[in-house]
Amino acid sequence: MSDIHFSLRRHFIETQQVKQVFQRIGDVHQDMLRSGTSKGLTLLGVSGSGKTTAVRQCLASSFPDGVIPGKIRRTLEIATPSTPTKKNLASAALTGLNDPFADSRSHTEGVKTKRIIKLLTNLQTEIVVFDEAQHIVDCTRSTTYEAADWIKEIMNACNIVVVLAGLERTQQLLWTNEQLRRRFSAVVRLRGYDLYVREEAEQFVALLAALRSFLPVPSVDFLTKEMIQRFHFASNGLIDYLIKVLDHATWHVLAGRSNGIDSNLLSQVFRDEVWAEAPLERIPFAAEFNFKPLTGAREPFEVFNGVQS
């Protein structure tokens, strides 16, 4: 692979938060195997906190030979539809299972569900992940209730671990069905690192150092006190925003548009990748930056009623 195709997304960093995800999924999985009954886990976090990446890496490392086409599929990731119903949730699950009848219009929701249960059993599936699970609670109350009932039906019929990965409001799904809620005792939350908490500040610095070690281009020192603060303001402590900025900056250097990653280039790519309309005093890498969090109205990390969007 040539450097021009470099991306930090091809490098996995096992942070403390990721280790927590690994441990909790592993614990719930072992509990399911011991008890012989389905268990659930909710993985909650703001957009950009690394939920999907953490789950995928956990499953890949736990089940390195987890797929034998037509015979075994230990894990299943379901892309939750943006406007979910029982039928299109079933179709999404069948799509994830590579079922040729996933989009069959002649099959009812009941037929699709029976097919899912049969496939999960025959393929020895152990963990099912619903990604972007907040979509289920973003619809009408009746749709949310039906979806919760459908997930419960799958869990009653199979011995599996179900992971609901999504934004904080995903947890509302469990409050629509008491039986489903009892199965989901485990909760893991991913969030941005807080520089005012010593342990988290140390983890954020370690993350910056790891990201810098992968870059194939020259750059300014990321680990001065001022640059640590600037990177934190630019990302709100979230790994996805760090990667967006650094990947784009690296591409500029590899394409010959810059000699290295410096504050000017970082300011430019911040506008490209995070906030196009940012005035100079609100660009964390600009000399004019006022060192205030980007959490105000219409800013990248805007807060609504105490909850980050």
Automatic annotation (TrEMBL):
Pfam families: TniB (PF05621). InterPro entries: AAA+_ATPase, ExeA_AAA_ATPase_DNA-bind, P-loop_NTPase, TniB. Residues 37-194 form the AAA+ ATPase domain. It comes from the Bacteria. Gene3D superfamilies: P-loop containing nucleotide triphosphate hydrolases (3.40.50.300). This is Transposase.
